[in-house]
Amino acid sequence: MSHFTSRVRRAIASAVALVASATLIAGCASTVASDGSGLSSAYNPEPLAEKTVVKVAYPAALELHSVALLAKQMGEFEKENLDVQFEVMPSSDSLPLLAAGSIDATLGGITVAVLNAVDSGAVIRDVYPGPSQADADGLWVRTDLADQGPAALKGKTLATSAGAGVFGIIPIQNYLAEGGLTLDDVTMMTISLADLPAALESGAVDAAWLSSPAHLPFSTSGSAKKVVGLEDDQIVTAVFFGPNLTESNPEVGQAFVRALKRTELTYLQGDYKADPEVRANLAAALGLTEDELMVSESLTFGNTFNTSFYEEVQRAWINVGDIVTFAEPLAPEKYLDPSFMDRIVVP
């Protein structure tokens, strides 16, 4: 998809959203906040009686996690009397801690590890869907191989943060098929998100699934090229709650989700990177310069849980063999909990 086409689609989506919002406000005047924000009062802060610490782990500062990181930067969690403490941690470490209640939430991808943990009985639920993929997100291949086409990957090593157990498995398989290859023709390797760029840059692997801003070194050097990615509606990241926020303290989880949605609706609409305040604060939250932030286009937020895509990927994992603990795709209610969104999102 070209940048121009992408912008047109986003513009149309934004226009539709604005019309829908205007209709809603006109028909439900009693629910509109009086603070001039234009948001429904359903998104107004409802501060908890006491300051409450919420421990959140995430694997790397990716644009896909913009809502939560910007909510912290803009003080939206504080409005709910939440002290949100972020810690960078590989998902292999954070998932057991989440299931055990040692941390409260994680930001990350829906992977084999997540669904295997759920299948084993862990209380881990996707409560907030991520955005569309950044235009740079996808499979990046060494330029010398990328220029030869997908058949050049025969016998080569492809790395992701979870081997074949990522949602990117669908476009990866499709790309290989264009060259007459299958996953059996390549070696899938697991490397942490933080180490993927260095592995590709050093030549330790021939291709890697990268998420913005991990692609920046290659956009500058030209030593690797993106060859395939996900479609905008193929949502692969989420905010996950463990038992602390789904069972023990759901009111805290509700305050957390309310702050997320308010942040999304207030700051992350349309071409939000064009707004100087949002651009500066988002760059700071992601540890980027504003120029680095502008390398990729604004993302599209407000996406829904794409359960049909989730099922498609699970079937692909089952076909790979020996990476999942289930023989049939898990029912959505086992790993999704839309109730936190349902209680605040105005229909």
Please, could you describe this protein's structure?
- With 347 residues, the chain is an alpha/beta fold.
- It has helices spanning 3-27, 66-73, 76-79, 91-100, 112-119, 143-146, 169-178, 196-202, 216-221, 243-248, 250-267, 276-286, 290-293, 307-320, 332-335, 339-342; strands spanning 52-58, 82-88, 105-109, 125-129, 138-142, 157-160, 187-190, 207-210, 224-228, 237-241.
- It has 2 domains: 42-132 and 235-342, D-Maltodextrin-Binding Protein, domain 2 (3-Layer(aba) Sandwich), CATH 3.40.190; 138-228, Periplasmic binding protein-like II (D-Maltodextrin-Binding Protein, domain 2).
- It has 16 helices and 10 strands.
- The strands form 2 sheets. It has a 5-stranded mixed beta sheet, with helices on both faces. A 5-stranded mixed beta sheet has the order 7-6-8-5-9.
- Strand 6, helix 7 and strand 7 form a beta-alpha-beta unit.
- Helix 2 packs across helix 11 (250-267) and helix 2 packs across helix 12 (276-286).
- The longest helix has 25 residues, at 3-27.
- The protein is globular.
Proportion of residues in helical segments:
40-55%
**Name of the CATH class of the largest domain:** Alpha Beta
How many domains would you count in the coordinates?
2
Could you name the CATH homologous superfamily of the largest domain?
A: Periplasmic binding protein-like II
Strand-pairing-aware structural class: alpha/beta
How many strands in all? 10
- Which shape, going by the Cα principal axes? globular
Strand content: 5-15%
The side-by-side strand order for the widest beta sheet comes to 2-1-3-10-4
Q: How many helical stretches?
A: 16
Query: What is the string of helix and strand elements?
Result: HEHHEHEHEEHEHEHEHEEHHHHHHH
Q: CATH architecture of the largest domain, please?
A: 3-Layer(aba) Sandwich
CATH topology of the largest domain: D-Maltodextrin-Binding Protein, domain 2
Structural Rg: 20 Å
- How far apart are the termini? 31 Å
Uncertain ranges:
1-36
Return the average pLDDT rounded to an integer: 88
Sheet with most strands:
5 strands, mixed
